[in-house]
Amino acid sequence: MLGLLFAGNLLLANAQPSECSAELCWSISPAFCVSATPEQHCEAQLSVSWHSDKAQDLCLYIAQQQMQCWQQGQQGQWQQLVSWSGKTDVRLENDTDVLLQKELIVLSRQPEKRRRLVAPWSVF
Amino acid sequence: MRFVVWLIAICFSGSSAALACASGEDACVEAEQFQLSVAVGAGQRSNPLYDGDGFPMLILPDFSYYTDSWFVDNGTFGYSLEQNEQFALSLVTRLNPEKGYFQRWFAGNVITMNSSAVFLPPAVEIGAEKTMSAVSIENVKKRPTALDAGLQLNWFGEQWQSRLNFWQNVNSKYNGQNASWSWSTFWPLAGGQVDLAATLYWKSSKLIDTYYGVGEDELYYLERYRGRDSWQPELRVGWQKALTSRWSVLTFYRYLHLDDAMTDSPLVQDDSVQTWFVGVSYRFY
Predict the structure, then answer these.
(1) Which residues of chain A have a CB within 8 Å of the CB of B163?
(2) Are A124 and B184 a contacting pair at CB < 8 A?
(3) Which residues of chain B does A4 touch, with a Cβ-Cβ cutoff of 8 Å?
(4) Are the CB atoms for B232 and B201 separated by under 8 Å?
(5) Residue in B45, B55, B74, B274 to test binding to A, most A beta-carbons within 10 Å
(6) Chain B environment of A113 (Cβ under 8 Å)
(7) DSSP letters of A36-100?
(8) How many other CB atoms are found less than 10 A from the CB of residue B151?
(9) Which chain A residue lies closest to B68 (C-alpha atoms)?
(10) Distances (CA, A) of B88 to A10, B66, B75, B91, B161
């Protein structure tokens, strides 16, 4: 069920397990990808599916963008080619609350570097 | 298989994205990895004091170790309180470098060789009724080893960075302060990278008095001097070119101007400290 997709120099991790909050469950695939460098974008066919014990109004957001809404639904599916970099929020919301939330992340094969705070070669 | 996916995720997730750095820059290091480079070549740092030894520099070290918050970098030990893509605020400590002009084997001076230059003391008439207007460092008391602690603010632009330091002496050796503000930029040149940095140092009267003052407790025939606040601008230009992933060519020149508060001291002969180095560096880690 789980698989790894190689797309160019991106490694995509597919089919994440369902996550639930009260009567609402969802799964997102892929939830992260592994790129050659930290700056690289990930582009993937993102799939989101959800189901609920009770009918409700829900909207799917990626970052600040509303992707799709469902009226009085008990389940839903959505799929689209998405490009993201760094950490990006995916959320299922009703009118008032964020019901489920997950971060899409880009992981890098290259160790992350940080800035030095002292000038190099400054011993003397 | 699910385990493998998450194992990959864990293995590739590094430290926080704070202060993330584009790879390849000289001023970038991998977190939690000791970094050591050694440069071998020719160079010298002048000594502005009468009878002070210049420091021929044949071997230069450059070392650092950073975690997400703690760091040791070329003699500065620090803890970053806040850091993001633009700023870093850190608590820092170090040995004050001023003693390096008085004692060859001190902190940053450790890896140096004997000076080949013969440094002649000035011709001074010595008489019971005359004072010595030029004072050799060999005639004054030992200067203290001072520990400074303070705050450091770094901020970063696309092609530049700036650093503000405030230091307070914390082991009661001079009971004063010093501060510096530096701004540096870089650009590509001849397949390498040119670095240009301007720094302005401020040193409190207590610091200047402790190291360059001549007090009543010194020999009676020496000219007295009470230290004042000192402002010292510095320019540094360097060029570095990577030859391989480990070998680089390294050159730099630094000019530190000493103001009247320094040159009025009978210990001080020159109004500048000049440092230059030409060599090749090898990155061990």
Answers:
(1) 117, 119
(2) no
(3) 4-5
(4) yes
(5) B74
(6) 20-23, 25, 28-31
(7) SSTT--EEEEEEEEEEEEEEEEEEEEETTEEEEEEEEEEEEEEEEEEEE-SEEEEEEE-SS-EEE
(8) 16
(9) A114
(10) 32, 13, 18, 10, 11
Q: Identify residue B249 by its one-letter amino acid code.
A: V
Work out the end-to-end distance of chain A between its first and last CA atoms, rounded to an integer number of angstroms.
Answer: 59
Q: How far is A6 from chain B (nearest CA, A)?
A: 13
Tell me, yes or no, if A2 comes closer than 8 A to chain B by beta carbon: yes
For the residues B182-194, what does the mean pLDDT come to? Answer: 93
Residue B149 forms beta bridges with which residues?
Answer: B93, B168
pLDDT at A64 exceeding the cut of 70: yes
Q: Give the pLDDT confidence score for residue B131 in this predicted structure.
A: 61
Which residues, in sequence order, are bridge partners of residue A115?
B28
Partner residue facing B78 (CB), from A32, A86, A117: A117
| CA distance linking residue A70 with residue B258, whole number of Å | 73
Put simply, whether B54 touches A (Cβ < 8 Å) is no
DSSP secondary structure, B113-176, as one string? ----S--PPP-----TTS-BSS--GGGSPPPP--EEEEEEEEEE-SSEEEEEEEEEE-SSSS--
B114 touching chain A per CB within 8 A: no
What distance in Å separates residue A119's CA from the closest CA in chain B? 7
CATH 3.30.300.30 fits B33-283, yes or no: no
d(CA B115, CA B131): 29
CA–CA distance, B44 with B47 (Å, rounded to integer): 10
Residue with tokens 């120099």: A9
Average pLDDT of chain B to the nearest whole number: 84
- Residue B263 contacts residue B50 (beta carbons within 8 Å): no
Q: Which two tokens stand for residue B31?
A: 């977190």
Report ipTM for this prediction. Answer: 0.81
Task: Give the whole-angstrom CA distance, residue B219 versus residue B223.
Answer: 9
To the nearest whole angstrom, how far is the Cα of B227 from the nearest Cα of chain A? 24
Q: Which of B46-50, B133-137, B201-205 is least confident? A: B133-137
Identify which of A3, A6, A32, A28 has the alpha carbon closest to the alpha carbon of residue A17.
A28
Question: Which residues in chain A are contacts of B162 at CB distance < 8 A?
Answer: none
CA end-to-end span of chain B, whole Å? 35
The answer to whether the beta carbons of residues B104 and A119 sit under 8 Å apart is no
